[in-house]
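Good morning,

Attaching, inline, the backbone tokens for the sequence recovery test we're adding to the shared suite. The designed sequence is right after.
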């Protein structure tokens, strides 16, 4: 209203300026043809889509966006049953994942000719980060299993003065990940926490048949701890402290009992003693940028190093770290502790109330009988 009210006081040049502001399309470049998207296939954690340029091509590259269909159904306000349902949130909404494929980087693969296509596997884009010039994404990690997603794309501005501008969005494409694995992917047993085993009112929670247990390097008395009684296990699990190498020798102030990592490792030994099938299960699906282990995000090398390791190997690695100070895959002690703690919770809760323990979100994403 303010603009309209002041209109009456305008000079001629001012009027032309107002007209120009009101009709910005005069100064915009003609848009490129919108790309199209097709679903090609999916796994539990990935969807491969084919993005094709229109007849105009997409010499500046393109952008791909995706969102969970349930979020798209709720619309920008995030509430189902309101007027904005079945539409995309604003483009800076964190529910939208984005990948950019710039056609202007050196060595780019993303400058598309007329009707040219590229296949993009969303859910494993971490492998592409820093490997394909012009590529970047806000969501390098895995998709959720058994979940529908909505995809859209647009062509970037054509490079060069007076060339065609960014296209409209493509039509929405609806693609789903493969169904979640049946629960018999996971053993029919439960894992328990440090606190559960530690509770001295329930000595029967620590089976004597699992004893004795040695942590660290059994060949080095200064670098190991052995537990022969239930009381010794429960007493130790009551403690904590910084995770580090065990040091039983030397002056008191240099000594360490391994801290929290030693407690989580002892808990894992008890869990595997009661749930031996778990020991053969395999870590999968880690990718560069993954923050499941807290601290700093995983590097590509760390992710590749973790993928394929069995829980038995992680237990061995935890004892190696406690005995020698060397942590597998270049992880920090804190990241290894977080991993072991995740493993102690993989079958901890009865999520669907049927009396059996169910896989945690971490287990669904990162623990399988064998990696795909
Ligand atoms: Ca809504
Ligand atoms: Ca259950």
């Amino acid at each position: 209203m303010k603009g309209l009210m002041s209109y009456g006081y305008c000079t001629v040049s001012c009027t032309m300026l107002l007209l120009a502001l009101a009709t910005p399309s005069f100064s915009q470049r003609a848009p490129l043809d919108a790309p199209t998207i097709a679903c090609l296939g999916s796994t539990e954690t990935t969807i491969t889509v084919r993005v094709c340029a229109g007849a105009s091509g997409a010499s500046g590259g393109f952008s791909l966006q995706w969102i969970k269909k349930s979020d798209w159904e709720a619309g920008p306000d995030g509430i189902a049953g309101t007027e904005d349902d079945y539409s995309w949130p604003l483009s800076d909404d964190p529910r939208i994942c984005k990948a950019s494929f710039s056609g202007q980087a050196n060595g780019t693969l993303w400058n598309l000719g007329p009707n040219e296509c590229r296949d993009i596997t969303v859910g494993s884009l971490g492998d592409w980060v820093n490997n394909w010039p012009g590529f970047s994404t806000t969501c390098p990690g895995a998709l959720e299993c058994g979940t529908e997603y909505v995809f859209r794309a647009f062509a970037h501005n054509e490079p060069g003065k007076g060339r065609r501008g960014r296209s409209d969005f493509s039509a929405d494409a609806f693609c789903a990940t493969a169904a979640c694995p049946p629960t018999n992917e996971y053993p029919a047993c439960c894992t328990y926490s440090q606190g559960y085993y530690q509770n001295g009112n329930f000595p029967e929670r620590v089976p004597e048949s699992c004893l004795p247990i040695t942590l660290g390097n059994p060949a080095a008395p200064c670098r190991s701890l052995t537990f022969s009684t239930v009381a010794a296990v429960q007493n130790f699990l009551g403690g904590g402290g910084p995770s580090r190498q065990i040091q039983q020798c030397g002056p008191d102030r240099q000594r360490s009992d391994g801290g929290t990592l030693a407690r989580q490792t002892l808990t894992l030994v008890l869990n595997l003693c009661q749930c031996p099938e778990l020991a053969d299960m395999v870590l999968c699906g880690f990718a560069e940028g993954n923050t499941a282990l807290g601290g700093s995000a995983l590097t590509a090398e760390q992710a590749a190093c973790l993928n394929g390791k069995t829980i038995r190997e992680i237990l061995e690695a935890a004892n190696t770290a406690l005995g020698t100070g060397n942590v597998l895959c270049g992880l920090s002690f804190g990241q290894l502790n977080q991993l072991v703690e995740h493993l102690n919770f993989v079958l901890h809760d009865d999520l669907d109330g049927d009396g059996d323990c169910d896989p945690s979100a971490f287990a669904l994403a990162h623990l399988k009988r064998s990696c795909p």
